């Protein structure tokens, strides 16, 4: 009998690794399938080249998602987090976000920021369940069909946790 992977236990098959330039075409393909106004291949290449935290989620040898985060002045900014549509709602996004937060913590960032469309209730539920707080609104931040869409700004304070002991998010 062949040992087919049980995709009901997806988390056992995923691994998280640094993104490199050869990953970009596959990453950008996931991006184009996920967003109506996707980042270009060039934006991903720039993120890798400038040294942002760029992580790939790999499942069974394929790109299943990715996360991009920048650091600056004690703040981490999660710029993009995405899981391939056919692999969502199985815990991968939470694990990916946890990986990024662990890295921000290890780099002694004080706070983690991110933006999200108010229409993206799935992502908002994920962020709020981890403890992100809604701290602002950027008017007309996103391109949208027929105009612009606001962004909600979320913040997760890490500083006080860092001062006490290394946090565990998972
Ligand atoms: C947001 C995203 C990364 C979440 O990834 P995921 O692998 O589906 O997330 P998980 O399975 O780990 O679920 C995490 C939480 O998201 C929420 N969620 C996930 N799937 C959901 C669904 N179908 N309906 C409602 N909430 C859902 C839940 O709060 C869930 O927590 P729970 O499992 O404890 O209930 C994914 O939906 C995605 O890639 N979306 C497109 C890109 C995007 O919008 N990125 C965010 C930009 S700000």
Quickly give the CATH architecture. 3-Layer(aba) Sandwich
- In the residues, how many domains can be counted? 1
The largest sheet is: 7 strands, mixed
The CATH class: Alpha Beta
Q: What does the average pLDDT come to?
A: 92
The fold-level CATH name is Aminopeptidase
How many strands appear in the DSSP assignment? Answer: 7
User: CATH H-level name... which superfamily?
Assistant: Gcn5-related N-acetyltransferase (GNAT)
What proportion strand?
35-45%
Bound molecule kinds, no repeats: coenzyme A
Number of helices: 5
Q: Which short descriptors sum up this protein?
A:
single chain, about 170 residues, alpha+beta, Aminopeptidase, 7-stranded mixed beta sheet, 5 helices, about 35% strand, binds coenzyme A
Q: Would you write up a description of this structure?
A:
The chain is 30% helix and 36% strand. The protein contains 5 helices and 7 strands. The chain has a single domain, classed as Gcn5-related N-acetyltransferase (GNAT) (Aminopeptidase, 3-Layer(aba) Sandwich), CATH 3.40.630.30. It is of the alpha+beta class. The termini are far apart. It has a 7-stranded mixed sheet, sandwiched between helices. It is globular and about 45 Å long. The chain has helices at residues 24-34, 41-49, 92-106, 121-130, 159-164; strands at 14-18, 53-59, 62-72, 75-83, 111-116, 133-144, 147-157. Strand 2 (53-59) and strand 3 form a beta hairpin.
Provide a quick synopsis of the model.
By secondary structure, the protein is of the alpha+beta class. 30% of the residues lie in helices and 36% in strands. A hairpin with a 2-residue loop joins strand 6 and strand 7.
């Amino acid at each position: 009998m062949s040992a087919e992977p049980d995709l009901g236990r997806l988390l056992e098959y995923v691994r998280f690794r640094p993104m490199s330039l050869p990953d970009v075409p596959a990453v950008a393909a996931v991006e184009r399938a996920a967003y109506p106004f996707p980042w270009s291949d060039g934006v991903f290449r720039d993120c890798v080249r400038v040294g942002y935290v760029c992580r790939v989620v790999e499942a069974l040898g394929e790109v299943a998602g990715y996360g991009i985060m920048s650091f600056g002045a004690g703040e981490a900014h999660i710029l993009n987090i995405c899981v391939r549509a056919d692999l969502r709602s199985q815990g991968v996004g939470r694990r990916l976000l946890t990986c990024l937060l662990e890295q921000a913590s290890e780099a002694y960032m004080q706070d983690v920021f991110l933006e999200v469309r108010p229409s993206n209730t799935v992502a908002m539920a994920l962020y709020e369940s981890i403890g992100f707080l809604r701290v602002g609104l950027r008017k007309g931040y996103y391109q949208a069909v027929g105009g612009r869409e606001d962004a909600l700004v979320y913040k997760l304070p890490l500083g006080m946790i860092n001062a006490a002991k290394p946090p565990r998010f998972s």
